[in-house]
Structures are given as C-alpha cells and as structure tokens.
Amino acid sequence: MTNVKKHLSLLGLKVKDKVTGYTGVVASIGFDLYGCVQAIVNPGMDKDGKLQDSQWFDVNRLEITDKTPVMKLPNFEYGAQAEGDQGPCEKPRMNKV
Known about the structure:
This protein has a single domain, classed as Roll (SH3 type barrels), CATH 2.30.30. It contains two helices and five strands; from the N terminus they run αβββββα. Helix content is about 10%, strand content about 30%.
C-alpha cells in the first residue's frame, strides 16, 4: 500500500489525538505544499444535538480507536469520483457524542 493510500485509508475511521485526547471521525485528508499530511477530525454532535467544530491534526498524532469505517468510502481510484465528476456520497448520519 502506498503512503497516499495508507493516509486515505483513515477516512471514516474513529480516531483519538494522542496529544489532546480529542476524538471523532476522520472526514478529510489534506496533503499540503509544505509536506504535512493532516486529517480533519469531526467529533459529531453534543448531547443537545449541536454540531461540534472539526479540527485538523497531523496524521502521526492520531490513534485509530475503531477500524470499521462509519460509512462506505468513495472510490477515488476509478469512476466519476476519481475523475472529480461526482459530488459527495450520501449525506452522513448525525450521531450524538
């Protein structure tokens, strides 16, 4: 598995930041011009149903807490999504924290 595929395989997994303890689901992976590979972690909703703010973390700070993706992942290798011709997958379910 290439490193890019390894990083993309984090999408949809539940993770915990080793430094802060912040938990949530990896919603996006970013590869920036300066060499950083980061993941945006979405913590979901609070007990009152308010959507919480997502945060970016370097991938090497993240610990996988559940290896089962929360939803089916898009196919970024073949087809319309790979070509950038298709929008998002189905709307994700909202889960309370």
